[in-house]
Amino acid sequence: RGRIARVTARTSDIEKATGVLRAGGLVALPTETVYGLGANAEDPTAVSRIFQVKGRPPTHPLIVHIGGAEHLGDWVQDVPATARLLAERFWPGPLTLVLRRGQRVPLEATGGLETVAVRVPDHPVALALLSAFDGGVTAPSANRFGSVSPTTADHVRAELGDAVDFVLDGGPCEVGVESTIVDATGEIPSILRPGGVTREDLEAVLGCPLAVPSTSRVRVPGQHPSHYAPRARVVLVEPEKVVAEAELAQKLGHQVGVLLPAAFADATVKAHAVVTLPRSTALYARGLYGFLRELDQRGCDLIVASLPVEEGLGLAIANRLRRAAGPRSTV
Ligand code: TXA
Ligand code: MG
């Protein structure tokens, strides 16, 4: 994938952020996937504040971010051989391992579960923070519950404003979709949420096929169908129907935003706003949440899109688009 310039942190910013974490405050931090809303993982009051700020139900478990694979054993009861292998191969990187919860992890962070999700983010600013803090940082994506995850510091400021004590700006996120969550508690791992590490990469390392749960049922706490949703309603159609569907809805009075598949880039679309998607799935994943935010900002009330082929990063993109198009909660 095309790499983007990596922003490193000023020492003074890392010191400030570390102080905020030690005092029980909240720090927004860049990762390679999306921005996180971080708190000291071992401070139950600080962890609870994350849920308040996000408007997230307290039963939705968080991910504990640590500074290196060598610290994994401090946060979980035991590290099975497959988990060790995956950690060594993919960390730092967009892979989260679910394992049995260690004593250090408060139940506030796991939504009451006896398992805990852990990852080492691949971003120089996040790694500098974790190294200076010398502890674990629980961080969900730094957005309000159910909405689109932030991939720039400006997205975080626009969405959370003063509710965050300090925002570390690490530039735009390189991967753009969240980490792949793998249940590594059993013999054969399974993918709970597709993300930045592809199923193909995992299977190549493990040498066996992995189960990917269907998106049609809520199986894991915090994996509701209407997650990752922009304000505008999202409608999914076959790629060759995107243009016609968009033009029809526009004619019917909608302000239509279009995520136009690269194969149809030459079409002129009579709609309110059109984003022509990159051909590369890496660039599509990197841009996805920004595209959805842009269409919201341009005043669209309906977004017409189609699913990419569900291989490689396409699996994570399709998962997020399905959830964006899923039924909205009425509460
Ligand atoms: O890339 C990412 O994973 C980003 C960055 C900030 O690291 N974080 C992120 O966090 O996406 P969040 O809170 O938006 O999503 C974490 C998801 C939860 O919704 C839940 O589904 C799953 O992780 N999770 C956490 N702990 C779990 C556990 N013990 N068992 C099963 N799933 C768990
Ligand atoms: Mg999230």
Protein described:
- With 331 residues, the protein is of the alpha/beta class.
- It has two domains: 196 residues, DHBP synthase (Alpha-Beta Complex); 92 residues, Threonylcarbamoyl-AMP synthase, C-terminal domain (Rossmann fold, 3-Layer(aba) Sandwich).
- The protein is 31% helix and 15% strand.
- The chain binds threonylcarbamoyladenylate (TXA) and magnesium ion.
- It holds the Pfam family Sua5_C.
- It catalyses: L-threonine + hydrogencarbonate + ATP = L-threonylcarbamoyladenylate + diphosphate + H2O.
- Its EC number is 2.7.7.87.
Kindly identify the CATH topology of the largest domain.
DHBP synthase
CATH architecture of the largest domain: Alpha-Beta Complex
The CATH class name of the largest domain reads Alpha Beta
Beta-strand residue fraction: 15-25%
Work out the helix count: 10
How far apart the termini lie comes to 40 Å
Q: What is the structural class?
A: alpha/beta
Indicate the mean pLDDT: 94
The ligands bound in this entry are: threonylcarbamoyladenylate, magnesium ion
The CATH superfamily of the largest domain bears the name DHBP synthase
Strand order of the largest sheet: 7-1-2-6-3-5-4-8-9
Shape: globular
If you compute it from the alpha carbons, what radius of gyration comes out, rounded to the nearest whole angstrom? 19 Å
Low-pLDDT ranges: none
Function: Required for the formation of a threonylcarbamoyl group on adenosine at position 37 (t(6)A37) in tRNAs that read codons beginning with adenine.
GO molecular function: ATP binding; double-stranded RNA binding; L-threonylcarbamoyladenylate synthase; tRNA binding
Enzyme class: transferase
Keywords: ATP-binding, Cytoplasm, Nucleotide-binding, Nucleotidyltransferase, Transferase, tRNA processing
